[in-house]
Structures are given as structure tokens and as C-alpha cells.
Amino acid sequence: MTPKLDYRWHLREMMATRGMFSTTDLRPLLAERGIDLSPSQTYRLVVERPERLSLKTLMALLDILGCGMDELIEPVAAAGSRRHSAAAGGGPAPGKDAGLGDLRPKRARIMPE
Asked: How far apart are CA 13 and CA 30, in angstroms?
């Protein structure tokens, strides 16, 4: 069985080592590179682990921080998550994520200037 992979997102730490302690420090630097994120999108990018990230945004972050991808994104083995069968009553209904109900993330829109 192939091990499941996960990752750790180190954007906040990388920013701090470069003297950037606020998400507002990052927005103009991204905009200089053609990445226009709203304040809330920038905040989520810094404080949460992104599930989807455009390569342009990733390359802009690497350029801003002067770091390599391995410093920003650390691959790790997923925590021992075992799947329970729905028939045994241990898992979510087919097609449903446990605990999410009808909540789904909204797609971020990045508009060119």
C-alpha cells in the first residue's frame, strides 16, 4: 500500500525570517509580480494551509522570499488515517466528507490588472 502524503506550509515562518510580520506586507509584493489577491485571500494564504495554489502565485512567493520550494512546502507522511467502511457505520455517507455537511470552499478568483 502506498503511503499517503501530506505537507506543512511554512509561509508565515518564511515571512517572519525576512522581517514580514503582517499579511499586508505581502500584498504589494505579490501585486508587483502580477498577483492581485484581496486582503482576505492574502490572510488565508498566510495563516492557513492552502489546498489549491496557482503556480504563478507559488513562483511569486518563492521569488519574494528568496527561498526554494522545499523550504516553503515540507512534504510529510499523512497522520495514520484509517478509513472505516460506511457499511460498518464508521465513515461518512458515500460522496460526503465527514463533518462538512453542505459546506464547500469557494474558488478564489485572481483577476489580472
From this structure: 17
**82 contacts 1 by C-beta, under 8 angstroms:** no
Q: pTM (2 decimals)?
A: 0.65
Mean pLDDT of 52-63: 96
> Under 8 Å CB-to-CB from 24, ≥6 apart: which residues?
39, 42
Widest pairwise Cα distance in the chain? 54
State the Cα torsion 53-58-64-65 to the nearest 10°. Answer: 90
Q: Are the C-beta atoms of residues 4 and 77 closer than 8 Å to each other? A: yes
Q: Are 48 and 108 in contact (CB under 8 A)?
A: no
C-alpha 19/C-alpha 62 separation (Å) is 15
Q: Which three cell numbers stand for residue 16?
A: 517572519
**Rounded alpha-carbon distances, angstroms, from residue 93 to 72, 83, 108:** 35, 12, 28
